[in-house]
Amino acid sequence: MACSECKEQIPKKVFEYSIKYYGRALCLDCQEDYAYKEKSYQKQKEKSTPEAIKLCEALIKMGFNAELEKSDGYKHIDIAIPKFKVNIEVDGMQH
User: Fold this and answer.
1) What is the rounded CA–CA span in Å between residue 11 and residue 50?
2) At what angle do helices 28-47 and 12-22 cross, to 10 degrees?
3) Which of 10, 25, 56, 92 could bond 49 through an S-S bridge, CB–CB 3.0 to 4.6 Å?
4) How far is CA 79 from CA 21, 39, 54, 71, 86, in A?
5) Of the candidates 41, 61, 49, which has an alpha carbon nearest to the alpha carbon of residue 90?
């Protein structure tokens, strides 16, 4: 059994735990990274509009590494996909 992120071999008990709590095979290091990213994502959601959250979650489900409220050092971007150098600004219902 291998970690779905880093491809390292993982023990059966770690595999079973990660499937139960994360929905996929993750080694201990990747479980920590995943938990940190999830906590960070929850904080970012507090600053985002419902429209931006919905779009970002759809992009993540499609397999993109989308990030909410990404800062480029000058301004905050609603959604960023750094790998593809794509920044998305989402206008809410007020627009």
Assistant:
1) 39
2) 10
3) 92
4) 27, 17, 11, 10, 8
5) 49
Q: Tell me the pTM.
A: 0.59
CB 67 within 8 A of CB 79: yes
Q: DSSP state, 92?
A: -
- For residue 87 the two structure tokens come to 């920044």
Predicted confidence band of residue 93 (pLDDT cuts 50, 70, 90):
low
Residue 7 and residue 1: Cα distance in Å, rounded? 9
Q: Give residue-wise pLDDT tens across range 10-59.
A: 999 999 998 888 888 989 998 888 777 777 777 778 888 888 999 999 99
Closest C-alpha among 92, 90, 23 to residue 59: 90
